[in-house]
Amino acid sequence: MPAQILDGKALAQIMQAEIAAQVAEQIRNGGPRPGLAAVRVGDDPASEVYVRNKIRACEKAGIASFHRHLPESTTQPQLLQIIARLNTDPAVHGILVQLPLPKQIDTNEIISAVEPRKDVDGFHPENLGLLAAGSPRFVACTPLGVQQLLVRNSIETAGAKVVILGRSLTVGKPLALLLMCKGPGGDATVTVAHSRSKDLPPLGRSADILIAAMGQARFVRADMVQPGAVVVDVGITRLGDGKLAGDVDFDAVKQTARAITPVPGGVGPMTITMLLHNTLLASRLCWTGSLR
Q1: What's the CATH code of the domain at 189?
Q2: Among 34, 95, 196, 209, which one has the highest count of C-beta atoms within 10 angstroms of its own C-beta?
Q3: Helix ranges (DSSP H) in 97-223
Q4: β strands within the chain, DSSP E
Q5: Catalytic residue among 16, 98, 147, 148
């Protein structure tokens, strides 16, 4: 039987409506309108699309958005100066610096310059450290979106063997930490593999939940998937013919898996939704001193 399709686009619409209702309630109760500042450097076409989609989603949810588009020639001191101003701006509760950045800018230094309580991307070392300690404040949006896809589709993670293909600081590592946390959407037994790992096919077949985040189009084949496994595809690559492909050979794997995410329409919409979620939490933290 073909796999259940985990529809991230449909779930994102539901969750964004929930967030919009929470934003409206917060404002009615005298709280601040959440504000997100997006900073983009250069003219990368993909980054332009991502930021535009995020701003549009903010508007629909009632979140104020501020966009700073800087030229490719922007220097590191110039960017740091802008971040410093946003860190102290009371109307800005969340700061998003769109990656990748031009080669003259040290990405790690920029991430570390963002005020941790406004780091709605969840990349700051302080927020990663809180996640590793099992007390997350802000979690990177893509890992959080993956977790919500699993939870809201009633896919049990407690006791499940999860294999994550990819060890990036934006997806693989924080996702592993998140799924190991105690509580709903956690308590999993997690293995992180990567391009240097040996014997990936049998490792993939050992997973109850297989998550592909390597950035290699159609890397995961049917022979790498245990029958009845859940497969989450985080990758997205534009092929030579202009079509988009994930890290999973979707047509082949859906015949083996119990459930699978499509590309596009799977994890991508959830990433934007979690950015809205984190921005709302950041405004709540500023208003009440608590994430609740």
Answers
A1: 3.40.50.720
A2: 34
A3: 107-113, 125-132, 141-152, 172-180, 200-205
A4: 4-5, 35-41, 64-70, 94-97, 161-165, 189-193, 209-212, 230-233, 237-238, 244-245, 259-260
A5: 98
User: If residue 184 lies in a helix (H) or strand (E), which one and from where to where?
Assistant: none
Catalytic residue among 121, 208, 247, 249: 121
Whether 122 maps to a domain, the answer reads no
User: Which residues fall within 8 angstroms of residue 98, CB to CB, at 6 or more apart?
Assistant: 38, 39, 40, 41, 47, 50, 51
Cβ atoms of 63 and 279 within 8 Å: the answer is yes
Q: Which amino acid is at 24?
A: A
Assess whether 54 carries a catalytic annotation.
Answer: yes
Q: Is residue 59 part of a domain?
A: yes
- Amino acid sitting at position 201: P
- The residue behind tokens 């240097």 is 196
Is 23 a domain residue?
no
CA distance 35 to 145: 20
Residue-by-residue DSSP string for 228-255: T-EEEE---EE-TTS-EE-SB-HHHHTT
Do 273 and 19 contact (CB within 8 A), yes or no? yes
**Which of these is catalytic: 54, 118, 173, 254?**
54
Please say if 121 is a catalytic residue: yes
pLDDT tens figures, 145-179: 999 999 999 999 999 999 999 999 999 999 999 99
Question: What φ, ψ does residue 233 adopt, rounded to 5°?
Answer: -105, 110
Q: pTM surpassing 0.90?
A: yes
Residues 105 and 168 in one domain: no
Q: Answer for the pair 118, 91: CB distance below 8 angstroms, yes or no.
A: no
Q: Kindly report the number of other CB atoms within 10 A of residue 109's CB atom.
A: 11
Over the stretch 217-261, which tens digit does the pLDDT of each residue have? Answer: 999 999 999 999 999 999 999 888 888 899 999 999 999 999 999
Domain that holds residue 92: 31-115
